[in-house]
Amino acid sequence: MQPTFVLVHGAFANSFSFAPLQAELGLLGHRSVAVDLPGHGFAATYPRAYQAPQDLEGLSTAPGAIKGVTLADNVAHLIGILERAKRNGPVVLVSHSRGGLTATAAANQRPDLIDRIVYVSAWCPVDLDVNAYNAEPEMATADAAGLMAALVGNPAELGLLRINFRTADPGVLASFKASFLADGTDDEFMLFLNTFQPDENLDTGTPDDRARPDTWGRIPRSYVRLAEDAGIPLAMQDRMIREGDALTPENPFDVHTLPGSHLKWLVDPAPAARLLGDIAALLPAES
């Protein structure tokens, strides 16, 4: 039976960013569904103060719908989608960036719903949680200065993380471009930046949400390295691959590499679509 690709976005993103990839997958004959995690997509908040001319003081206190959303909420939402997709045949769960946290926790809970799990430069916490990974040497080249410079309001008071992606500060924009899409044109970068939503939830999980050998570890898995990724550097991607392989050496990652930055595979999705098709072909014939 034909598999369904279930696509899970990263931080501040939504299902919209997968539209070009879904078009390429469809033209190759593949079925896919892009997920909006709770508080994302059309459920996101874009405060009036975020519009031009911006009111940064108002933006710093405006409520956001994603307040209180937890990783458990994300996981429950994703599991509901996986249950529906599984009725139609095999499921290939594909996550990007922070979406890997949700994918990993869902795989811990319901490995029966996933025929293959694919991480595209995504967080796959094994030995540490994501906050601890961010303090490790492999993340030393990642530059969070742009995000911190564009931070609006107090996350503890807002109950969410709010970033002003509509800033006109040239230094912040340069930092964003270097982190996300250094190999894209300025127009591609600005277009993608305007698909981001300003709010993200604060919950990145606990040690209990790390990959478990008896559930997550039973699922065939692939990791797609992004060779020029400055957001999750290659050294950190490789570390998570090594840790996953050490956790279940009898079921190691199937590893692939695409050239490009953190977002280039979504801006120019044809190579990624072909690769995902090749990965789906690894599913057992009886699936």
Automatic annotation (TrEMBL):
Please verify whether the record's keywords include Manganese.
no
Keywords for the protein's UniProt record, in alphabetical order: Hydrolase
Q: Which residues form the signal peptide?
A: none
**What Gene3D superfamilies does this protein's entry cite?**
alpha/beta hydrolase
InterPro entries listed in its UniProt record = AB_hydrolase_1, AB_hydrolase_fold, Sec-Metab_Biosynth_Hydrolase
Q: Name one GO molecular function term.
A: hydrolase activity
The reply on keyword Iron is no
A single Pfam family it belongs to is Abhydrolase_6
Domain AB hydrolase-1 stretches: 5-270
What this protein is called in its record is Alpha/beta fold hydrolase
Organism, scientific name = Kitasatospora xanthocidica
